[in-house]
Amino acid sequence: MKKALSIVVTLMLAVVFICGTAHAKREKFGEDPRAKEAKRISFKTSDEKIRWKMVMPWSKGLLFYDIASHFADSVRLASAGRLDIKPFSAGELVPAMQSFDAVSTGAAEVGHDWPGYWKGKNEAFVALASVPFGLDAELYNIWLYERGGVEMMQEIYGQFNLFALPGGQCGQEMGLSSNKRATSMADFKGMRIRTPGWFMDIMNNLGASVSPLPGGEVYLALERGVIDAAEFSSPAINYPMGFDDVTKYVIQPGVHQPGIQCALFFNKDAYEKLPEDLKWIVDIAAKETQLWSYNWINNLNAKAIKLFKEKVEFVHMDKETLIEFRKTTKEYMDSIKAKFPDAKKILDSQDQLIEDYADWRKERGGATPWPYETYISGQIHE
Question: How many domains does the chain have?
Answer without folding.
Answer: 2
